[in-house]
Amino acid sequence: VSIDVLRSLGRIRLARWETDQALEIFARIRQIDPSSVSGYGPASEIYMNTGDMVQSLSWLFKAAAVDPEDSDLSNWIVMTYVSFGDFDKSREWLEWIEHDQNFNPMTWANKAMLDVIEGHPDRAVNLARQAFDDEIQERWGSDAIFIRTLLIWALEQDQAGAALESIRKAHPELFDSSPFVNAGNVLQAIDTAQLLQREGQDDQAKILLQAAIAAYEKPYAVTETSLASGKAHALALLGEKQAALQELRHQVDRGWRLHWRWNSELNPNFESLREEPEFQAIVDFLRTDMARQLEQVSAMEATGEFPPPPET
């Protein structure tokens, strides 16, 4: 059996949440060819899906050891540290990536996200605008981070119209009367819908939000863990608070942790849920769980099991 076939089969198992079977397939790839990164990177994704971010990071480091030139892997390490709340380590990795690896849109997106989290939205929006002006190709959700950055800026500066013009250039499909929405643009669609609401275009916003929810409800159409909370965003913007909270709780219970802060307490789409006790309980649970996991990471760093960026 070829590694390509096994990799495809493993990803099917992953999309179907058949975790044990997927792990067995990627272990088989490592057995056939220990030098193939296909046996390591997807294993990280499996643990990321189930909320074990420590194991996910462990497999990212194993994958990076096999292919140290892969800047995608380095950027996933950054995103994982951001999820843990270790922003200093995230910055260290980003600095190393910029200095030692080829340009990757994920690097700019990670910088923008970290800038927003650390209270520097002006720097973040400059990165987002430059990415759109330079027509940088989307990579592993980078575009969604840029649009969220524009959304946060637009709401703070009352610039929804200007943000929509930037998005229209990058995603004209979201402004059609029957917009095309799938896993590749579903978060972008939801954030765009809030901007449309702010501009009084409620009918077009509703069409986008319903299209986003339909994408999530189509079997195996939206499986990436970075997109897991999106349906709850859309429901909240439609005013369906209890359905949004139920969906968010479902995703957290299933293991959603990646980008948790970005897509919960910093997420403008959840503004209507801020004061809800259930929402606050969800955020508190996520914060506590990720602090617990960060303690494990720190212990593994102390023993050398998790390395620092190569340059340091």
Strand-and-helix sequence, N→C? HHHHHHHHHHHHHHH
Number of DSSP helices?
Answer: 15
Q: What is the first-to-last residue Cα distance?
A: 41 Å
- Percent helix, as a range, is 55-70%
User: Quick one: overall form?
Assistant: globular
Assign the structural class, choosing from mainly alpha, mainly beta, alpha/beta, alpha+beta, or little secondary structure.
mainly alpha
Rounded mean pLDDT is: 97
Computed CA radius of gyration, to the nearest angstrom: 19 Å
Give the total of beta strands: 0
Strand content bin: under 5%
Q: How would you characterize the largest beta sheet?
A: none
Low-pLDDT sequence parts: none
How is the secondary structure organized here?
Layout: H1 3-15, H2 19-32, H3 41-49, H4 53-66, H5 71-84, H6 87-100, H7 105-117, H8 121-133, H9 142-157, H10 160-170, H11 186-198, H12 202-217, H13 230-237, H14 241-254, H15 277-302
Helix pairs in contact: 1-2, 3-4, 4-5, 5-6, 5-7, 6-7, 7-8, 7-9, 8-9, 9-10, 9-11, 10-11, 11-12, 11-13, 12-13, 13-14, 14-15
Please provide a written account of the structure.
The chain has 312 residues and is mainly alpha-helical. 67% of the residues lie in helices and 0% in strands. It is globular. The mean pLDDT is 97.
Looking at this protein, list some descriptive labels:
mainly alpha, 15 helices, 312 residues, 67% helix
In short:
With 312 residues, the chain is mainly alpha-helical. Helices cover 67% and strands 0% of the residues. It is globular and about 55 Å long.
